[in-house]
Structures are given as structure tokens and as C-alpha cells.
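Two records follow; treat each independently.
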Amino acid sequence: AGASRAGDLPDLRHVFWGGDELRPALAAEIAALAPGAEQVNFYGATETPQAAGYFRLDGDPTWRSAPIGFGSDGFQLLIVDKDRRPVGVGEVGEIAVRSNYLSLGYVEAGRVSAPQDRGLDPAGQANIYYTGDRGFRLPDGAVVFTGRADDQLKIRGHRVDLSEVTSALLACPGVRAGVALAVGEGAGLRIEAFAVPERGPAVGEAELRTLLAARLPGYMVPQRVRITPSLPLL
């Protein structure tokens, strides 16, 4: 957001990303400001150190989102099916982190209670954490994050991945940031989108919905698109 005021950053050597899905366009903005900086995408969860996985960005513009890459020292990134069995290269499944350095548990009433959500490795050690994130493995072993398991929902009998709707929204001209969310419950469950416009001529809600209708099946088109000056970051 402050890029227009930042000027060039020729002495910056490293940029470390983490906390959310990294879009290549965002990394490209930083590369324009700091062309000499190496950019690394980190992956982790509250139950794991925040750098359980890493990927050194290579400037490939074809990624929908930057890979989360490989396990750091002492960590392994796994992709498993609903029965928590390993899946093959290119198959989408749940991302799990295997390590002897997971968190000790959860704080309750001022004390750390032992976690009950750890999976067992082949040796019987409780050192696997199932993240609820989804992804797949590339032929070189790197992992690509595709969204949250709880971002999938049924709309009028069709399974929808909200990350796909968000991706289509971010591909619309004039959109700087955005997100698709599930609103309502039961029969009233619907998709709504929130978009932050680029600087310059404002993009309209009706215009965005028309663009999304050209990119997505009818059941995936948000019922409403709301224009907002910013998105909450937490």
C-alpha cells in the first residue's frame, strides 16, 4: 500500500513472506522496488514454527499462488487423503507437518494442556499435525497451497472452493485485493465478495459481478460484490 511512497530499495537483500497465501503479483511489486532482494515464502501454523516450510521465489509468473515449498530442517510437509494416507504427485489433499518440534500443547486456564490432535508417524510418535490446509505436490517435491478445507461448501448442490472465486476476483481489472466469503446458513447460504479497487477510476460492483459471471459457472458467481477501501488483515 505504501509502494508509491517507498522509492527504490537497492540495498534490501532478503524479503520473507508468511501468514497468508502469497500472490505472484505482490511479490512482483516488491521485486520492482528491491530488484536485488531474494524473496522466500514461509509456511507454518500456530501449532508449528512459522517457518516449517519454505520456497525461494524464482519469478515464475504462471503461479496462481507462490508454492510453500519444502520442509525446513527437522520438518516434513506431507499431503494426505481423508483417511490420512499419503497421496501421489499432483493429487490434492490435506497438508500435514511432521516434526519433533511441534508446539507443546494449548494454553487453558493458564496451563499448557497436552494436545490431543497429533497424528502418529510409522514409529508410533505423535509428531504429525494436520493443518486443515489443502494442497498438492509438484514433481520436484515442492508443495503448493490451494486453500482451506473449511473454505469448501455446497451451494445449490454444487461443491464450491471459495479460493477459486477469490482468485477470479483478483484477476479482474481494477481489483487490488479481494476475498470471497460464505454468508448465511442452511438454505440461505450464499457467496459474497469484497473487493478493494486499484487507485484511479473506481470499478463498480455491477461491473465486477459481470466480469465474474464471464469467468465462473453460474453457481460460483457471488450473489453480491461489495466495494470496500480495505480488507481486515487479522
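The next record belongs to a different protein.
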Amino acid sequence: DMPGLFKERYGYDLSSVLVDIFVETDKTKKARCDFYTLLSEMALEAFPRQMQDKLSKLGVNLSGHYYGEEAFDVQPFYYGDILEHLAAMGVPGCDNLKSEADALRYCNACKLASSAAHISNKDRVMIEASNMTDRNQNITPELAKGAISIMFVHGVNLITSYYGENMFDEKGMKDFTNYISNLATL
């Protein structure tokens, strides 16, 4: 129903600007802005708002993250306004696949999720924390705690660890989970 909604909203046919959306012309800026704004609103209604409405009736909050959330340049093409989408969730969330402190320091996924929570007056921000993209690295409990600390400073306060139960020995895992618990308590 996008062509009809587009015509209703903007007063011109989507088919008349398809080339302008994908090829640079004098109409590109307006066509892209209109197209991606509508795309974002449709995706927002189709997924996070609809799911959160259904889940809230069961006393459950929607949380999660989007594909490509780390890269601003891909967000409009996938779902539009990430802040609006994350804010529609009961618990805005993000994913982080790294444990290297320098990579995490400038990762915007945590900050986007915490900003979405802030603008929507929510007090929890979830992360799926893991070392998926740097899994060949020798991850120590200290390195993992450092990674979690950076995520916490970026506004995450609900930490879901996907590091794996066999990553550390029993003492290391106990120390790591206690550290996460202490951060969450703050």
C-alpha cells in the first residue's frame, strides 16, 4: 500500500520519482526525504509499535536491536529513524560484537539506544554483549569487564552477555558475572 500512502501524504505519485530516489537528479533530495520518511513510519508501525503494543498487554517489554545499527549511512535504507524505532521499544536495545576497548569507545550503537531511552523517558537500555567480531582475540575477564564498562558508560544498564559459558574458568566467570551485577546495581 506504499504507493497509495505516498500519494495521499505527499500529493504526487511514487512511480513518478522512482528514478530520482536512486539516481541523482534535481528532484532527488525531496524524493528521497519523502520516500524514506514514509518508509520509516511504515516500518515503525509494522514492527516495534505493533510488537510493543501486543507485548505490553502481557506485561512484557519489547527489546532488541536492528541490523546495521552501528552505521548511520545504512539506517535510512533499512528502517529510517533509528531513535524513533528504538524509542518505541519498551527497553531500547543494541548489539555489540566487540571487546576491544578502542573499537568500543567510538561505537555509536550503545549511545543511540541510551539516547532513545532518554528521549522516551525510559530508564533501561539493553545490550547483547559478545566478542563475535574479535573472537580470535584472547579474551580475559579483565578485557571483558573493560568492554562492559565502556558499554555502561555509554548508557547501557541491562547487560545480556553472549560471551559464552566456557569462555573463562569457573573463578573468572564468577568474577565477570559479579562485575556485571555490580554495574547493574549502580
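Discussion point: The first strand starts at residue 93 and ends at 96. How would you locate this feature using only the C-alpha cell line?
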